[in-house]
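hi! just following up on the protien thing from before. the input was this:
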Amino acid sequence: GIELSIGNEDACNDLINEVLKNAKSLEDKIPVYLIKMKLLVSIGKPLIDTMDVGFDVLSMLGEKIPRKVSLYDSSKAFLKTKFMLRNLSDAVLIAIPVMTNKRKIAAVEIISFLFGSSNFRGSRHQPLLVFRLVQLSIKYGFCSISPVALAMYGAFLCGPLNDMKNGIRFGKIALSMLERVEKTDKSLAIYMVHTFINHMTEPIYKSLDPLLNSYESGMQTGEIIGAVGSIVSYCETYVMAGLPLAPIEKDIRLYHQLLVEYEQKQALDMLLPMWQFVLNLLGKSEDPSKLTGEVMDQAKFIETQKRNKNSVIGGRARIYHLELTYLLCPIDYSANLLVRLVAFIKTSLLCPCYIRFRCLHGLIALAMARKTRNKKWFKLAKGATKQVKRWVEGKTGNILHLLLLMNAEYDSLSKSNEDVKRSFDLAISAGEGQQDGRHRV
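and the predicted 3d structure came back as:
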C-alpha cells in the first residue's frame, strides 16, 4: 500500500498485476484486490468500477451481494439486522468473541471498503452493505471492522431510518469497541461517529479535535479512506460551527495541497465547494452568490459530478450554493434551488451540512409562504420545521437557534409586531449563546 499512499498510480498498477499473476491462493490475492479498489477510488474512477471488483471478490468469498438493489432488499436486510440485535446489550456487543473465520474477515474488509468508497458519491448499496457488516460481526465475531460496522449502522439509524436514540447508542458502542483494535484501524469509525452521529447530541465543536486526530493518525498508518474523510469532515464541521473563517480557509488551502499530492480526487471534490463557499463569504469572489472563483467553476463542477454520477458531491455543492443565495439573493431564486434538493436530502446520512440544509429548507419555505400565501410552501415549511423540532427535542442543541428563527418566521405570518420582535430576539439570543460555546474550541 506504500505506492498508493504516495499517489504513485503506475507503480501501483504494475505491482497489482504482478502479484495477482503469481498469487497461489485467494487469501494471497485479497490484500491486492483491496489495493486495486483503493487505487480506483483515489484516482476518481467511476464508482461502478470499484464496486464491480469488490462484488467479484465477495462472490469468491461466498458473499452474494446483488448488483442491483431494490428498496425491498434493503428493508429485508434491515429487519434481519434489527432482529439479530434485539436482545444484545451494550456490554455483550462490546465484548463479542473474536472472529476467526479468515474468509469472513476478508469479506468484512471488502464490504467496509465498498461502503467507505461510496460514501462521497452515494450508492443504493450503502444500506445493504452496512446491514451485512453488522450481521457478520454478530454471527462470526469481533474484528477490526466491527466498530466501523456499528458506527455505520448508527449513522443510518440517525439519518434515513429516523431512530436517533438507537443511532446514538450504536455510535457509543462503536467508540467503546475501538479499545479492542489497533491504532491503524480506528480512523474510519471515528470519522463515521463524529461526522454523522455525535453532533446530534453534542456541541458540534467537540468533534473537531477527534476528526483532526483521526486524519493525522490515518495518514501516518495508511488508513487513507478514514483519514481523508476525517479531514474533509473536520473542515466542514469547523465551517458549520460558526467559527472565524479566515483560519479555516488557510487550513483548507493546506489540506487541499496535501490531497493533490496524494491524488485523493474524491476528497478534493468534496473540499472544493466548501472552500469556494468560505472564499465567497470572505469577499474573495466577483459574484458571491455563485460557487465560481479562485478554486472552482460552479456550472462545470456540477456538470462533471452529474456526468460521473456523484450525487453526494453534486448535492453538497448545491447546498452551499443554496445558502449563498439565501443570504445574498431574492428569495425566489433560493426557492427554485430548494425544490430540486428536497428529495435528495431525504435519503442522506445526517452530516452537519445536511442538518443545516433542513433548517434552510424551513426558512426559505416560510419566507415564500409569507410572500405568496401558497399552500405548497406552507406544507414544505411544516415538514421541515417538524423535522428540526424533532432533532432539537432529541437534544440536537446545535440548531436550537435556527428552530427559534423558524418559529419567529411562523409568528410573522399572524402575530403582532411586538410578539414577532420578541421571537426574533429569542432566536438571536440563543445564537449568541451557542457562539460563545463554539468558540471554546
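The two ends are 35 Å apart (CA to CA).
Residues 2-6, 436-441 have pLDDT under 50 and may be disordered.
cheers
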